[in-house]
């Protein structure tokens, strides 16, 4: 290994080699993904133990770099929140989320707004009549990285209580006064200033799938559709990752470099046998199904639906929350966090 005291070898190729080295350095400076190979992933960090039911964690990263996670430890409740300020290496002890301690809930989503606030949306179970259950969406906002939360507000219930209104994916902040809620029963545009709700784009409901806005302002729906006019019209994309089947279980995110990532769960049974990432590198026009990026492979069936949720920690690292209910794994069932080098997304 060369040290400062070692002489530098002469440049046998002269200026030509110098220009080539300069080009390589420039390419690496432009994109941290350039010329990088796939790396082995670190072991997952255990956040909670002894989980069961609809755990379905949600994840966001704040403007200050704090990671916030919410999940259910067991069916309906307790509904817990935890935070990490060191990139997911350690986590605060999961605590009760303050506004759902007395409420039976189905887990929802977390979103970081452009102004740094966090929106946590979840699903409230209610009984419109005896022996009948339905759900509606409530949300709360934090202005201090998830330490305290505002009093909840609610979206409208579906007029037909047999049709559940459910959220599982982050909202899309189109502007400070226009939040796109991808709900199971409708795709709604909500004005957080007035509380008014209107239909978004074309009247079609996309169902309980993620909708994301790319770095190029294109909208991509987990239904396998793409819109370049703000959702007025949509074009079908084929082939497309199977995000819409069990859309509450899968994820799709837009990366800052213009790429997109979607989850793919391979194998039979409830949870499959491994979780892969599928990447689009052309603003959602096509997806690299031929080169899946392996994220989690315990070499056994995964317990539960896993429900991965991913954020960018920085331009070199992704962080993903997921769960595995296999009681026979070391430490038993749990909620986990794992990082992935962004370089692994290269084909």
What can you tell me about this protein's structure?
There is one protein chain. With about 350 residues, the protein is mainly beta. It has one helix at about 15-30, and strands at about 45-50, 60, 65-70, 80-85, 95, 105-110, 120-130, 130-140, 155, 170-175, 180, 185-190, 195-200, 210-215, 220, 225, 235, 250-255, 260-265, 275-280, 295, 310-315, 315-325, 335-340. The chain has 2 domains: about 55-205, 6 Propeller (Neuraminidase); about 210-345. The chain has 1 helix and 24 strands.
What is the overall silhouette? globular
User: In order across it, which strands form the biggest sheet?
Assistant: 1-24-23-22
Number of strands: 24
Instruction: Look at the structure and give the CATH class of the largest domain.
Output: Mainly Beta
Rg computed from alpha carbons, rounded to a whole number of angstroms? 22 Å
Distance, first to last CA: 31 Å
Mean of pLDDT = 90
How are the SSEs ordered, and which strands pair?
Blueprint: H1 14-30, E1 45-49, E2 58-61, E3 67-72, E4 79-84, E5 95-96, E6 105-112, E7 118-129, E8 132-142, E9 153-154, E10 172-175, E11 178-182, E12 187-190, E13 197-199, E14 211-213, E15 219-221, E16 225-227, E17 235-236, E18 252-254, E19 260-266, E20 274-280, E21 293-296, E22 309-314, E23 317-324, E24 334-341
Antiparallel strand pairs: 1-24, 2-3, 3-4, 4-5, 6-7, 7-8, 8-9, 10-11, 11-12, 12-13, 14-15, 15-16, 16-17, 18-19, 19-20, 20-21, 22-23, 23-24
